[in-house]
Amino acid sequence: MWAAARSPYMRKFEAEMESLKAFVEMGHNWLAENSSPIHWSRSHFRSTPKCDILLNNICESFNSVMLQAREKPILIMLEKIRMYLMMRLQTKRDWMRNEDVEICPKVQKHLEKLKNDSAACIPTFSGEQKFEVRHMYGEQFAVDLENGTCDCRKWELTGFPCSHVISCCGWKGTDSEVYVCEYYKKSAYKTDAYEPVMNPINGPTGWVKTDAATIYPPKKIRIVGRLKKARRRGPDEIITPSGKQRLSRAGKVRMTCTSCHVVGHTIRKCPYRTNPEDSSVIQSLNMNKCSKCHLYHHNLRTCPGVASGSNSGGTAATYVTTGSAGDKCGGSIASEPIRYCSIKFSGD
Asked: What does the alpha-carbon distance between residue 29 and residue 277 come to, in Å, rounded to a whole number?
C-alpha cells in the first residue's frame, strides 16, 4: 500500500495496486470500495500546491508545542498560542535574514542529493528544450524544460527538479537551481510566509469598556475520577494490560533465551529458571552448543570427540550426561529439556 501511495504517476500506481491485489486481494478490494486515491496517493495529487506530503506531521508538531497550553482555560490557551506564533514568526524572519542563500537550506540540501542521483540518468536531446531521459534501471521519461514538466511528475508535485531534469541541465550546462519553484526562494520565504507581523495587544486593563452583556464562563461541572490527559486511542490500536501500546512481534522475531539458548522465549520467561537448582547450574556454565555432537558446554573447534581422533597422546573423551538430557550424549539428544553435559578426560 505504501508503494502505491508513493507512486508519483498513474501507470506506476496501477502496477503497485495490481501487486497489492496479488498479495492481499481483500485489502485491495477494501481500498477500491472505501477510499479514493485522490486523498492518499501522489499519482492523483494536484500539482498546484507543490507539496507531496502524505502524513500530517505538521499537525503533530504543532500539537506537541501546545501540550501545556491546551490544559488552560480558553482565553489563556488562545493567549499562549498567540504569543508562541508571534515569537515564532520573528525567529524565522531573523533566521532567514542571516542566511546568505537564494534557495531555502533544506530544499538546497535535498537538491544536492538529487544531483548525485542524476548520475544514473542518460538524457537525449530532441529539440525545443525537450529531452528523453533513460534511467540505468530501465525507466524512461520525457522532459520538457520550457513547460516545466517531467512524465515522472515529481517536478510538478514538489516544485524542485527531479533527477531526470537535473541530468538535462547538466547536458545543457545550466544550473538546476533556475528551475526551482518560486515558493522555495528566499524572497518568497521572507515576504509571503513570515514577513507579516502579528501586532502586540494590550492586556485586559487596557481594553475598551463596552455596554455589551458580560460573558461568564460556563458552569464548572466536576467529573468523577481523575482527569484524563492521554490522547484517545483509535479502535484498531492494541493496548497491553499494563496500559501501554505495543506492536506485536509474534511471528516476526525469533527470540533466543540468553540463559538456556533455546529459541522461542526470552530469559524473562525461561522455564528452566523457575527451578533454582537448574538456574544456578545453567548460569554457571558456558552454554555453547557443538554442531557435531549437539552437546552444550563446547563448540566444534573444541569438541573432544573431534580432538580425540587426532590426539597423539591417546587421551580419549568420555561424555557424561548430567540432568535430564536423555539416555545418551553422543549423536542426537533423545529427549528435552537439555540441561548440560560435562566432559571427562582419561589417559591411556
From this structure: 57
Q: C-alpha cell of 107?
A: 530544499
| Phi, psi (deg, nearest 5) at residue 144 | -125, 100
∠ CA 233-238-244, rounded to 5°: 75
Q: How far apart are CA 45 and CA 116, in angstroms?
A: 27
On the question of pLDDT at 241 being above 80, the answer is: no
The pLDDT assigned to 326 comes to 37
The domains of the chain are located at 105-192, 267-346
Q: Give strand pairing partners of 285.
A: none
Neighbour-count burial of 183, counting CB atoms closer than 10 A to its CB (0-12 exposed, 13-18 middle, 19+ buried): middle
Count of CB atoms situated within 10 Å of the CB of 2:
8
The pLDDT confidence band at residue 343, using thresholds 50, 70 and 90, is very low
Three-state SS for 37-75 is: HHHCCHHHCCCCCCCCCCCCHHHHHHHHHCCCHHHCCHH
Residue where the block lists cell 531573523:
94
Q: How far apart, in whole angstroms, are the C-alpha atoms of residue 342 and residue 114?
A: 61
Q: Do 145 and 155 contact (CB within 8 A), yes or no?
A: no
Sign for the CA dihedral angle at 97, 98, 102, 105 comes to negative
